[in-house]
Amino acid sequence: MRNDQVLNLLDLSKLKDLEKMLMRDIDETHMCEPEEECTIDTPKCPQMQLKAALLKVRGLINPVHKGINYHRTEGGNVSERVFAEEWERENERTSMRFDHGILEILLAPSNRVRPFDTKIERISQRDASVAATVVQWLGTSCGLGFLEECERLCEKERKLALENSEVVKSNRRIKNG
Ligand SMILES: [Zn+2]
What we know:
This protein is mainly alpha-helical. It has 6 helices and no strands. It is flat. The protein starts with 8 loop residues before the first helix and ends with a helix. Mean pLDDT is 83; it is low at 1-5. Zinc ion is lined by residues 32, 36, 38, 44-45, 47-48.
């Protein structure tokens, strides 16, 4: 199912109940022996089967990663569209990120995300809308100006740090020589 398909509230609350049940069940079941060929795509033991189910359920209740000004991306606004689309892609659940979107990982209590971590809370639609709005804003002329200014300041600080380290090195040479 695609993100932009709308679930009605009744379905959503049923799915959330199901998610909670699965998370509890996963915590109560044991992992199989690691040498078994048991993966999320070919689950063999009960725990991996539950994890595969949890992933499917979470996919259904994933929020839409579109900002409140998303309509602006449809009017030929190239950089806003690129920022918005890339952000959406970053938030797709891929196996590279252990099936979590980037915002989900950023908002996780610890940055150490383990594969199929059941402790990670699902993010709300509000979380997703706020973040997507900010990221799309980076593609506006104000946003691009902001990025440019930040890059300029970073460059300045890097140069300063480099100069300082050279001063330290030459001071050391004077002292030792
Ligand atoms: Zn297993």
